[in-house]
Amino acid sequence: MIGLPGATLDDADLRVFRDTRAAGLILYRRNFESPAQLLDVLGRLEGALGRRLLVATDHEGGRIVMLGRGVTIFPDNLAVGTAGEETFAYKQGLLEARELRRLGIDLNLGPCLDVLTDRYSPNIGIRSYGKDPKLVARYGVARLRGMTKGGLSACPKHFPGKGHSPLDAHLKLPTITSDWDEMHAVHLVPFFEAIAAGVECVMTSHPVYPRLDPSGVPATFSRRIVDEYLRGEVGFRGVIVSDDLEMGAVAETCPIGEATVRTAEAGHDLLLVCHTEPAQRAAATALVEAYRSRRLPRAGLEAAAARVRALRERRSARVEGGPPAPERDGAPLAMAMASRAVTELTPGREAFARALNGRVLVVFPRFSELAARITIEPEVCDEAGWVRAAFFPAGVTPEPRVVGIEPSAAEIEDAAGRAASSDATVLFLYDAHLYPSNRALLEAVQARARRLAVVLLRDPYDAALLAPGVHGITAFGWRRCQLEAVVARLAYP
Hints:
The longest helix is centred in the N-terminal third of the chain and has 17 residues, at 86-102.
């Protein structure tokens, strides 16, 4: 399964698909301008190839959304788990399946079934449903059942579980030292439940698990973890999918061609090479050479191809359900999830709400800076306008101060100075535990603000940095519904 470089289709793109005989296409933000444009590209690509592709995307909800129009933007999984209503997850899966099938998607590479622990997780965080493996299993399986009901295949990830990975595998190769007892008690539980529920695919992970496979290879290359355990001992009969083989965790191990062959040797059926033509061509060439040299046995290759073919053939139509459009019930459901998930991390909401009757400062990140890299809702890209509109129903006319995702020294000083002369300040804080400039912003504002509420926008780790008397609150994410839910909680004690 390979990706396209952009939102158009040219002869060079077609040659890559023809030459590699790729079974599928993975879609990213770079491929999507509008529903009409996407459907045109899919139609022209398959028409030129004369065959149907398996079309997939990462649509986890929350911060991981590749196709940002024609769909409902739901909260992050940690918000859904915190909301405390399993039916929410089922309905989300059902609605997003209908929406994605209208956009021509066959396979959703999600949800994330990784379980959080007390250890810091730099890449999973709010992508997980939580720390309780039984809760993660219930909510994950509910969502999977909703997707299946809506006609969409799902691919939970990242087997055998990396919610406690110390590094981001997109960048570096992590090592996870958990043994089989810990993995069975915590991290494998949601995957067992998903497989028992009949899920069609499972995606593996890149970290090294030395106590699961003493050879010390990444799980992606581990025949012990993939073929012997997942396929053999667990008995999974569906499609085993690799994570992207162009990630840094793999790149520091071996060249892409060798990585592709080793991933196939481990027992994967569908190999993801998502981004660059040289890597895609090298991967395809290496697979053919491994077949011809008999390094990869023909029987295993044919069985893998048959499983992928069966998955692709579950749907004959490219699009189902009519023209692309968000489901009518999507936005109310997203708001209900977000509202139930709002969590007060420190006391003081009532006193803060009273201070909103005076002069109010709102310090808000310039999310439009991120729009080139991740999906940002248009309303949130108008940061100052969104702030005014969000507080307006409560009769509050705030002074918005928009700062960089990594604020400058001048922005920090300006925000702190304005906080000192305001009756109430709301600081929307973006990962102070990761960005020193955001920590400096927090420290400067909370040292000078008369009355302060801090909204933690992503992972809740910043709560440890709040000073006494500061009201901390989070919705476990910063999608528009989550931001609006936080404002409503602050304004209506």
